[in-house]
Amino acid sequence: MENYLRAFSVLQKRYDLKLFYSISIDSTGIKLQGYFNDELYYQVRKLKLDGELNSIGYINYKYKYITICLTPCSK
Fold it and tell me: Alpha helix (H) ranges present in 1-49?
């Protein structure tokens, strides 16, 4: 888990994590969740990950032990 905390520290320095409404770190990895919007999508695209759209409209990204989920905006 110590490795996850170090990786989170790097993410925090490079990306605006205030755009995510949920951030968790546990024994399985780092999980970030936020509402899909242009600004957050741009931040996630900087990670150069391929996302998958699931059947209920969420976009999920996965890289090693980092999981990012963008949910449809409810506005």
Answer: 2-14, 38-45
